[in-house]
Amino acid sequence: MKIGEVRAKTPDELKALLLDLRKEQFNLRFQRATGQLEAVSRIRQVRRDIARVKTVMNERRRAEAASAGRHG
């Protein structure tokens, strides 16, 4: 997933995406532990996608706080 795709999502979509990615991460970890994981590189992709989503969420939160501080 590219950063542009993440930035285009609404806050609710970001929360849902983050939840889905965390579930996938858990499942991948479980598969790796039981020796059933074939696509080992997917673990890294999911981890980085989670980081992208969290980064965008934090950027938006900081932007809201900054704008509230200026106008408040």
Automatic annotation (TrEMBL):
It comes from the Bacteria. The keyword Ribonucleoprotein applies. Belongs to the universal ribosomal protein uL29 family. The keyword Oxidoreductase does not apply. GO terms for cellular component: ribosome. The gene is rpmC. Keywords: Ribonucleoprotein, Ribosomal protein. This is Large ribosomal subunit protein uL29. InterPro entries: Ribosomal_protein_uL29, Ribosomal_uL29, Ribosomal_uL29_sf. Pfam families: Ribosomal_L29 (PF00831).
